[in-house]
Write a structure and sequence with these properties.
Strand order of the largest sheet: 6-7-8-3-9-10-12-11
Strand content: 15-25%
Helix content: 25-40%
Distance between the termini: 29 Å
Order of helices and strands: EEEHEEHEHHHHHEHEHEEHHEE
Number of strands: 12
Bound molecules: iron/sulfur cluster
C-alpha cells in the first residue's frame, strides 16, 4: 500500500511569554493507505498536538517546522484557503470530548449535514437525506427523528457516534480520532471498538490515526503502533509484534503498568516539556541507561520494526 501521510522531522513549540514548551521534538512517521496507526503514550507526551498539527489547528503562539506530506502535498506550506478544502473533507478530526464538540443550539442533523453541503456541494435536502442514512448506519435510531434533536437529547455514546458520522460524511481519506475512549465505561468502549471496526470493514482504503492512552483499545484496532514519549516517537512496530514483545524500555514499562499486567508503575516522573532531558529523553527513568544514552539515540531497525534505543545498536 502507498503512503498516504508522511511526517518528516516535525517540531512544534508553543511560546508562552518567554518560555518555550517543546511539544513535538523531531517526529517522523508515515501512515499507509488503509492502515490503522495507533499513537500511544502517557498524557502530555505530545500525541494530540501531533494530530492537530496535521490539520494545522494550532494556536497563534505556535512555532512549527518540518514537513507533513498528505497525498503528495506538504500541508505546512499550503495557503489557508487550500487547507480549508482538505480539513473536514479529506482529513476528518474526531475530537476527544463529544459533550463539548457539538454545538448545543443546533440540531444534530444540521451539524452532520453541514460538511456535506460545504465540501461535497450537496443541496440541503440531499445532505439531510444522507444524514438520516448516516445516523441510521451508526445506530442512532429512529434516525429521522433523532436528526431533529439537539445534542443534549443524546446520550454520550450517541453524541460520539454523531461526531463520527460527521467525520465520515465526506468520505475522507484519513480520520484522526483523539482519545475516542476517554471517560468511557467498559461497555461503551466495546461499542467504540465495534464502531471503528465497522468503518474500516466498509472502507478498506480509509486510513485511521487513533490517538489514545488506552492500550487495550489500541490492541484491538492497530495495524502498527507508534509510541510517543516527551514529544518524540520512540518506537514504531507492527501491532502483532508490539503487544507480544515491545522493544523500547518505555514501551515495556507502559505495557507493564496496565492492570492486566500487574499495574507496575513507571518509575520516576514524566519529563519537563520546557527543559527535556539531554540525549535519550527516557534516560532518567531507564534502568538500562549508560553514559552513551546522554547522546540522542537514532532509530535502529529490529526485525522490520524501529526503535530509538541504544540497546538495539
Ligand atoms: Fe534506556 Fe539508553 Fe535505551 Fe534510552 S537509549 S531507553 S536510556 S537504554
Amino acid at each position: 500500500m502507498n503512503d498516504l501521510l508522511v511526517i518528516k522531522n516535525l517540531y512544534v513549540n508553543f511560546l508562552v511569554e518567554d518560555v518555550k514548551v517543546k511539544a513535538v521534538n523531531g517526529v517522523s512517521i508515515s501512515i499507509k493507505e488503509g492502515e490503522t496507526l495507533c499513537l500511544i503514550g502517557e498524557s502530555g507526551s505530545g500525541k494530540s498536538v501531533l494530530g492537530l498539527s496535521i490539520l494545522r489547528l494550532l494556536p497563534e503562539n505556535t512555532e512549527i517546522s518540518g514537513e507533513i506530506i498528505f497525498n503528495g502535498k506538504n500541508l505546512l506550506s499550503l495557503p489557508e484557503k487550500e487547507m480549508r478544502k482538505i480539513r473536514g473533507k479529506e482529513i476528518a478530526w474526531v475530537p476527544q470530548s463529544p459533550s463539548t464538540s457539538l454545538n448545543p443550539v443546533l440540531k444534530v442533523g444540521y451539524q452532520v449535514a453541514e460538511p456535506m453541503i460545504l465540501h461535497l456541494k450537496l443541496s440541503k435536502k440531499d445532505a439531510y437525506e444522507m444524514t438520516v442514512e448516516l445516523l441510521d448506519y451508526f445506530g442512532i435510531h429512529p434516525a429521522r427523528r433523532r436528526a431533529e434533536e439537539y445534542p443534549h437529547q443524546y446520550s454520550g455514546g450517541m453524541r460520539q457516534r454523531a461526531l463520527v458520522a460527521m467525520g465520515t460524511s465526506t468520505k475522507p481519506k484519513l480520520i484522526i480520532a483523539d482519545e475516542p475512549t476517554k471517560g468511557v465505561d467498559v461497555i461503551k468502549k466495546v461499542r467504540v471498538v465495534k464502531l471503528f471496526e465497522k468503518i474500516k470493514r466498509d472502507n478498506d482504503k480509509l486510513s485511521l490515526l487513533l490517538i489514545t492512552h488506552d492500550i487495550p483499545f489500541a490492541k484491538k484496532l492497530a495495524d502498527r503502533v507508534a509510541v510517543m514519549y516527551c514529544g518524540q516517537v520512540v518506537e514504531i512496530s507492527k501491532a502483532k509484534d508490539f503487544f507480544k514483545n515491545p522493544l523500547h524500555p518505555y514501551s515495556k514499562a507502559l505495557l507493564e503498568s496496565l492492570p492486566s499486567n500487574g499495574l507496575k508503575p513507571i518509575p520516576g516522573q514524566p519529563p519537563s516539556m520546557i527543559n527535556p532531558p539531554e540525549g535519550c529523553k527516557f534516560h532518567p527513568r531507564c534502568e538500562f541507561a549508560t553514559e552513551k544514552c546522554l547522546k540522542e539515540p537514532p532509530f535502529f531497525e529490529h526485525n522490520g520494526n524501529f526503535v530509538r534505543c541504544y540497546l538495539y545498536d
